[in-house]
Specification:
By secondary structure, the chain is α+β, with helices and mostly antiparallel strands. The protein folds into three domains: 8-55, no CATH class; 84-126 and 192-309 and 329-350 and 400-506, Outer membrane efflux proteins (OEP), CATH 1.20.1600.10; 134-186 and 359-392, Outer membrane efflux proteins (OEP) (Single Sheet). The chain is 57% helix and 13% strand. It has twelve helices and nine strands. It has helices at 42-52, 63-68, 89-92, 96-108, 110-131, 153-158, 191-257, 263-297, 328-331, 333-353, 399-466, 472-506, and strands at residues 8-13, 21-26, 32-36, 136-146, 162-164, 167-168, 173-186, 359-370, 383-392. Helix 7 (191-257) runs antiparallel to helix 8 and helix 11 packs antiparallel against helix 12 (472-506).
Length: 512
Amino acid sequence: MKISFENIVCLQPGLSGNPFYFFLKNKKIGSGRRIKLPKNILATTVVSLALIGCKAPMATKMTDLVKETIPQNFDKTTTSENNSGITPWKQFFTDPNLVILIDEALKNNQDLLITLQEIEIAKSDVLYKNGKLSPTVAAKLGAGIEKVGRYTSSGAGDASTDITDGKEVPENLANFEGGLVANWEVDIWQKLRTEKKAAVAHYLSTVEGKNFVFSSLIAEVANNYYELLSLDNQLDIIHQYMDLQKKALQVAKIQKEAMATTELAVKKFEAELAKSKATEYDLKQQITEKENEINALLGRYPQPIDRVKESFMSIVPQTVYTGIPSQLLANRPDIKQAELELEAAKLDVEAARKEFYPSLEINAALGLEAFNPSYLVKLPKSIAYNLVGELAGPLINKTAIQAQFKMADAKQIEALYDYDKTILSAYIDVANQMSKIKNLDQYYEMKAQQSKALDDGIGIANQLFQNSRADYLEVLLNQRDALDAKMELIEAKAMQLSTVVNIYKSLGGGWK
């Protein structure tokens, strides 16, 4: 009887418990039938059962389906393939102080240095898996002593065995040996090569992980730098408004002496000035913390951050070209990392499945051995050698191997979901940032108009108050509104710049 295992998904013992019955399932039609195996091929079938095991679902075949589901555009207006993500970061960022900070961060950041060591670990694992493909040869020296029991097969034989006439084998038998021993697992099923390929895929994924850390670090330094400039400008605005409030307070005191206003107006202006001073100290603390946050990213202890705050409001955000969504697969290192981890998981499943196969090991030894050191040089009698080949595979109690296989299979499916999630998150991230850029442009324009109108109103309100033609509350409200609008305008500028940085990172920029 000839059995073809080509279309078998799984071989299982028959439901009757009879070991001579097995269930064959055809993977093409999904149906099965019970057959009786003759005794003369039972052993072959059992071994084949160990070899084939149960095949894992090939999750990696679904990656093409995942890629096909990516939309063709981010929105109806994006049709160009121009992509800012391929622009080197030193060309994308033009502020010389920021470029210096990023350059130092890429050299000294601790998270990046840790990631580089993870690459070295993965590289060493590749070398380890590659080394397992070759025979292991070691030098061996040994010495020992043995006394066997008299009433054993070995002890009973010693009484009648003489090494020379009149001399029995010593009761305490020493042993001295030296030579070479070798061991080699022959990779007949390509299991070791599969493990090596999985290690290589994991190593390449750690390289992409390093690239993603690069990209994230550049964006984080840039965002913190722009936030620091924003805080600097907010502090300057507070100082300007404190000067206005001091002048208004002086006017209120003069009018009180002239009986043109009351003590209440003076107290209101004093309270408003105290509030601005409190905001000043809060901003100073935020500036200190932001400077130290940047220093931490640069891997250094606290020190001043060089910057030019005066030009912050005049910075024009860069025009960003998003290209088409499919370019994310090539530009984003986190997507490439997830794809390589999926490839590594697929290979791990293949290697785990091959654990069901018999393994062939060859062991050899060649050297000198004797119970007396003086006999070691008596060649060829002291020469000892052995050569053993073993072919062994699991038949019963394969629970550990099956558990390892199921775990590898689950990790493969998990890696597929992670790959799908990474692509989806990348697309949504870019789409959100694009929408944010458009809306922030309009938001900034409206805030600029509001701030200008309120600034003009402050001068008018102060003039009217000095001429006793306006109430002090009108002055206070105008100053508060103008201050809030100015602060929001600065924050809007920071958000504009931050959004440009984030979309640059989302497109995969910075690591090339």
